[in-house]
Amino acid sequence: MATNYEYKQVEGAPLSVFSPYGPRMKYIKTKLSNIKSETILKPMSQTTFMGINGGFFYPENDNYNIPPLEGRSIAYSSTDTGNVSVSYGSPLKTRTLPKNYLRNGSSNQLFARKTLVIYTSGGTTKAAYMYATNTAEVFAQYSNVKTIIGGNSFTSSDWGIAQFNVPLPRTAISWKGDDVYLIATPDAITINDLKASIEHIGLDPVNTIVLDGSGSSAIRVQTNGSWSNSFIGGDRHIYNMVRLINAT
Question: In terms of domain of life, where is this protein from (predicted)?
Fold first, then answer.
């Protein structure tokens, strides 16, 4: 039996007044000190990690079957330096990108997006959010930063009409005290549905970051020696995931 995390599947808020049923919500509950951003540049199914998909990224020619060209959300871990390289394709190619992506958006277009900051203060691991365009803004406000995960809010203007209203699988990360919840919904829902479902299971949308969704949505978890509770969505090559450090 796992001692450093807990997995559950629960039902979210009813999707309409005509249906008593809500979307499936799969989540891993662990401690804030037990997660980090991990740049993988490949499908989560090809890793040994447990966790959920991370933030937004830029695919090459809209092709999600090869490593992305670049990130689009902050993906930072204080324990990581240098680059990560993955091989792909035929003939064989190699893509090398930084382990830490330091901005929300691109070098030509930055966005002040809702971003999770995990840091230590007085020997305690804490979480906060801020609207940041890059890691420099985070470091100016917080000391002893361990992990920064860029994502998005529940505000429609941060998404655009289609992305906000079209039902899609969704991924989010919520925190409550020193606990953190890594959440994926295999069922297609809107951003408002996700917000209602976060509240329905006793979490606060204010303390929640929405991550990449649609075919990127995924959760990888082992329970009782089996990976059957995982959901890998479109099994896309993604830039980063939010993973457990200790998965025992």
Answer: Bacteria
